[in-house]
Amino acid sequence: MTGKIETVGIVGAGQMGSGIAHVSALAGYRVKLYDISPERIEAGIATISGNMARQVSSEKLEDKERQKALGRIAPANALEDLADCDLVIEAATEDETIKRKIFAQLCPILNPEALVATNTSSISITRLASQTDRAERFIGIHFMNPVPVMKLVELVRGIATEDLTFDTARAFVESLDKTITVAEDFPAFIVNRILLPMINEAIYTLYEGVGSVEAIDTAMKLGANHPMGPLQLADFIGLDTCLSIMQVLYEGLADSKYRPCPLLVKYVEAGWLGRKAGRGFYDYREDPPVPTR
Ligand SMILES: NC(=O)c1ccc[n+]([C@@H]2O[C@H](COP(=O)([O-])OP(=O)(O)OC[C@H]3O[C@@H](n4cnc5c(N)ncnc54)[C@H](O)[C@@H]3O)[C@@H](O)[C@H]2O)c1
């Protein structure tokens, strides 16, 4: 048995929130997209429209379907607009304080039966759930970036997540034509527990002068058959998100092997957050992007 999901609320209209809105609308759900910054909602909807147009040009989508899907996405000017959602997916900045504040404001607005999910890359689902009025109906639904392209979604139960919540979340994710992997609730789950230490090590390799940005990325692309280099991937994820995940691993597992590289800290402090900021390990204001080190 699974619960009925018709309307999906999304909190955070950045890279991930707009991607989740994209695939949910294409699968036939009504979507309400909220962000603390109204410009991000506008930019998110423009990104979705552009990405769907690309899917039409590459004949992966019919134009009629694109128009219908876009018509299912409504901007939400306030959290209150999410009151009638059956499922709300939080995809705001990877910062526990921000996420806790969102849940504290959001939960009293929602129907008591509504499910709440977080797209966090690393933060404890159990801890986030315990801050809400519905730990039984709270779950981690961890999409990968870019959402329309990546097949995998990690499902992560908190200690109190009910079977009905899990089964409903699973049915929802499967309806988006994604493949599920189930991860236990430990820092960074499966994908980022393995991926982020590799990226952090690549940044140490740069920091210690073992290789340049270009040398490191070329080495891993051609020497390990990775589709993109680890520094390019870090830029793609967002360096603020990478740093937050390393901090969660470092603090959550209390092991010095997860110590975030000081160079990663420096880039984040500079606001060089990667592709979304126009500059990270590469400068995206140039075409093709130029390494910054
Ligand atoms: N980038 C990735 O590769 C990736 C992959 C999987 C999961 N995630 C997770 O998804 C979440 C979002 O990441 P992203 O890459 O989309 O980041 P992003 O920086 O592109 O977007 C974050 C958005 O959250 C908004 N925001 C901040 N505070 C808010 C608040 N109080 N209320 C509403 N909106 C708020 C920001 O305005 C911004 O638009 C994070 O938890 C991240 O760990 C990221």
From TrEMBL:
Listed SUPFAM superfamilies: 6-phosphogluconate dehydrogenase C-terminal domain-like, NAD(P)-binding Rossmann-fold domains
PROSITE patterns noted in UniProt: 3HCDH (PS00067)
Gene3D superfamilies named in the record: N-(1-d-carboxylethyl)-l-norvaline Dehydrogenase, domain 2, NAD(P)-binding Rossmann-like Domain
Residue span, 3-hydroxyacyl-CoA dehydrogenase NAD binding domain: 7-185
InterPro entries: 3-OHacyl-CoA_DH (IPR022694), 3-OHacyl-CoA_DH_CS (IPR006180), 3-OHacyl-CoA_DH_NAD-bd (IPR006176), 3HC_DH_C (IPR006108), 6-PGluconate_DH-like_C_sf (IPR008927), 6PGD_dom2 (IPR013328), NAD(P)-bd_dom_sf (IPR036291)
Protein origin, superkingdom: Bacteria
Keywords assigned: Oxidoreductase
Zinc is among the record's keywords: no
Molecular functions per Gene Ontology: 3-hydroxybutyryl-CoA dehydrogenase activity
Domain 3-hydroxyacyl-CoA dehydrogenase C-terminal: residue ranges: 189-284
EC number: 1.1.1.157
UniProt similarity note: Belongs to the 3-hydroxyacyl-CoA dehydrogenase family.
Protein name stated in the entry: 3-hydroxybutyryl-CoA dehydrogenase
Organism whose genome encodes this protein: Chelativorans salis
